[in-house]
Design a protein that fits this description.
Radius of gyration: 20 Å
Oligomer: single chain
Structural class: alpha/beta
Number of strands: 14
Shape: globular
Number of helices: 10
Helix content: 25-40%
Order of helices and strands: EHEHHHEHEHEEHEHHEEEEEHEE
Strand content: 15-25%
Strand order of the largest sheet: 1-5-4-3-6-7-14-13
Distance between the termini: 44 Å
């Protein structure tokens, strides 16, 4: 591991609070439909809870994506080639990331994540599994362009964005992220980077809802941990016992929605601002958009990526797509 502490690029105030976190929470709570972007789930506890979610019986995406990674290693190696720097947008999965790294023989591995402690923990674990591989963790908000370590600049790059995290964003934000990834990977500097991205597919409603409302309540704890984080980091007084986990399938938008619903009238403060919620009112905490082949391709093309190869698991639940950065064009 070539950087034990990683590179910290998160903008914090004098109290050590992430400025973007504060701004997003306050802006979201002022809205008529209160909402907080799903990326703020992932403090250390949220990251650990999500790792637990990936092992649940109901949560099929991790198993489906892992199946593809295990079965298609030779194809990945042929299409991607060796000696690329793998830049993972999010802390590396203990299961999925090693499968990719073993398949393609990369020159370096660069995980980007906003949760610093979890980032360094996962990067250290991967460094132990791959002792000859340079690992460069970067603590950063990858929703915008990230400056990669100098050692990585001359290398060809592969972006890795597993888990259908792209589905957490409304289309406009997803396109912005894909463009930021393109910039982070150096597409405008004469390179032709690749992106391997996971996308969950539209399927039976009952299966979708169960995946986000498991019987053990792990996803509910993950959702409520957002309120815990707001209280801890932003001097919040949200009564956590008055919030319940709620899951909705929005067919018109082709997405699962997660909410924190007030079980009674409540009033609270966050960073000195006062807020109130009536019984039944919700904070919208996550979208998880589901895709068809056409909608996935359209999103990638809008973000500056041309799909080259698509793989599905045996039950057609999940897809992995390899895309290449598209040359900027001024006309169709």
């Amino acid at each position: 591991m070539s950087n034990d502490t990683g590179i910290a690029l998160v903008d914090r105030d004098e109290d050590g609070v992430d400025r973007a976190f504060r701004a997003d929470v306050l802006k979201g709570l002022r809205q008529r439909q209160k909402a907080v972007p799903a990326r703020w789930f992932y403090d250390d506890e949220g990251s650990r809870l999500f790792e637990a979610i990936t092992g649940l019986d109901e949560y099929y995406p991790t198993r489906a994506e892992t199946e593809i990674l295990e079965a298609r290693g030779e194809e990945f190696a042929k299409l991607i080639g060796p000696d690329r720097a793998v830049v993972e947008f999010g802390s590396g999965s203990s299961v999925k990331t090693p499968l990719l790294l073993r398949a393609i023989d990369p020159a370096a591995y660069v995980p980007l994540d906003i949760s610093g402690d979890f980032l360094r923990e996962s990067a250290a674990g991967l460094a132990e599994k791959f002792p000859g591989l340079p690992v460069h963790p970067v603590e950063a908000d990858f929703m915008r362009r990230v400056a990669l370590p100098e050692e990585i600049e001359p290398l060809k790059k592969l972006g890795f964005f597993p888990g259908s995290t792209i589905g957490n964003m409304v289309p406009r934000t997803a396109v912005d992220l894909l463009r930021s990834m393109r910039a982070t990977l150096g597409a405008d500097e004469g390179e032709s980077p690749l992106l391997l991205i996971g996308m969950d597919l539209i399927k039976d409603r009952a299966m979708l809802e169960a995946a986000y409302d498991d019987a053990e309540g792990v996803t509910a704890a993950f959702n409520r941990n957002l309120a815990t984080r707001i209280n801890r980091e932003l001097d919040g007084t949200i009564p956590e016992d008055a919030l319940e986990h709620r899951v909705v399938w929005n067919d018109a938008m082709a997405r699962i929605e997660m909410h924190l619903a007030a079980t009674r009238d409540i009033a609270f403060e966050v960073s000195g601002e006062r807020f109130a919620m009536r019984k039944g009112e919700t904070i919208h905490t996550e979208n998880s958009h589901k895709f068809t082949r056409r909608s996935a391709n359209l999103l990638l093309l809008a973000g500056g990526w041309t799909p080259e190869k698509r793989w599905l698991d045996a039950d057609n639940r999940f897809s992995l797509t390899l895309a290449r950065a598209t040359e900027q064009r001024e006309a169709p």
